[in-house]
Amino acid sequence: MPLTDAYVQPERAHEPEARYPLDVAFCAKCSLVQILHSVPPEQIFLEYSYYSSVSRTLLEHSRFHAQEVIARRGLGPDSLVVEVASNDGYLLQNFAKAGIPVLGIDPAVGPARAAEAIGIPTLQEFFTSELATRLRSEGKQADVLLANNVLAHVPDPNDFVAGMSIILREDGIAEVEAPYMKDLIDDLQFDTIYHEHLSYFSVTAAKLLFERHGLSLNDLRHFPIHGGTFRFTLGRNVDVSDAVRALLIEDHAAGLTGFEYFRDFGRRVTRLQKQLRNLLLELKAAGKRIAAYGAAAKGTILLNSSGVGPDVIDFVADRSPYKQGKLMPGLRIAISPPERIMEEMPDYVLLLAWNVKDEIIKQESAYLERGGRFIVPIPRPVVLGMESLGRAPNRAASVRPEMT
Ligand code: DWN
To answer: Which end of the chain has the smaller Cβ count within 10 Å, N or C?
Structure first.
């Protein structure tokens, strides 16, 4: 597969692009699932196109999290909140607005610059145990350490968690969000497997990793964001909540600590890809025009692994100005502003960013009102029309019942 953040400039469309193996393995000792080929992070995260603030869903999720942590930990002007993978300041801005000193750490040049532009001090570096040691020697230790959607992204999770332990105050806590592997497997979210995501966690695997570096998994909460995410709360006190105990039991009961649970995943994915491809080709054969929405990393995997290219998808709409005008990695489908959907009124729009479908459907309600239809590919291909707005189907649009 190509790198999912390697959006292609049109003038370079004729150039070949690097592709890398994307094999996934299960560790029988600690239950961690990992991809086997690590692409150097400098190749992915320095010129990075993902800006967290594009998603209102994520901004809301982050605002509620900050408010809850400030109250729970009694944070104030003498506290320090450090975030690793702070991106464009989407989360830390809530602490800064409350008068709490913050420090962002993110290697991505663009997002780090965007964070600084809104007053979030940001180190444009990769987080390592060495950086943590340097910050600690400068007297910068965190009362709260945040690390959302980054633990899965690092080639050396042990060094990363060792760094977390170093930078955390003795009585500090860390809050780490990472996708839950059970959601991925149960809901066939195969398109979230890509080279940015090196590790995939069960509660068992995460707990073992944290404990290896003196951090106890004190508590956890599950959220629907990004298709299913755990927020792990870590501290130095060995104090394990009932929720953690319940999920450890669930891991074993569901089979996440053994290979059998994963054995038929590939076959189920292949069946899903065939269903999606057949649906799209049937629609094309019937003369329908199809676009897509969300130049998401997962969209590159979905399209390239399913062999769905510019012969099927006319364009991909995306609100991010950093992606508009470029081409999707691999199959080279053009990325356009969302306004093109209403201008051209394709019959169907494939929702590549299915994890934020509610936000996108609400945003594009005019398209549905004019008879447009969304195709949601995961966990199985379904066609959504006006009914997805909670209103009566538009009689003008005829859609075969078997596709709804
Ligand atoms: O781990 C990661 C997850 C958390 O986010 C990163 N590796 C990269 C990224 O993965 P992704 O690109 O699959 O994430 P999203 O958030 O599903 O991407 C959504 C895309 O859709 C973005 O390009 C923004 C765009 N978007 C839009 O055009 N209009 C998003 C929303 C909510 C919208 O209304």
So the answer is: C
**Ligand 1 centroid – CA 297 distance (Å):** 7
Cα of 159 vs centre of ligand 1, distance in Å, is: 27
Q: Which residue has the tokens 């199809």?
A: 290
Q: Is the domain of 354 the same as that of 242?
A: no
Q: How far is the CA of 182 from the centre of ligand 1 (A)?
A: 21
Give the 3-state secondary structure of residue 280.
helix
Mean of the per-residue pLDDT values for the chain? 95
| 204 and 293 co-located in one domain | no
DSSP, collapsed to helix, strand or coil, labels residue 122 as strand
pLDDT tens digits, 131-162: 999 999 999 999 999 999 999 999 999 999 99
| Cβ 49 vs Cβ 82: under 8 Å | no
* Structural domain containing residue 312: 274-397
| pTM listed for this prediction | 0.93
Q: Is 359 in the pocket of ligand 1 (CB under 6 A)?
A: yes
Q: How far is it, in rounded angstroms, from Cα 152 to Cα 132?
A: 19
* CA of 320 relative to ligand 1 center, distance in Å: 9
C-beta 35 within 6 A of ligand 1: no
Instruction: State the Cα–Cα distance between residues 112 and 90, nearest whole angstrom.
Output: 11
Cis-peptide, bond into residue 329, ω within 30° of zero? no
Whether ligand 1 lies within 6 angstroms of the CB of 363 is answered as yes
142 sits in which H/E element? strand 142-148
- Closest approach atom of ligand 1 to CA 298: 13
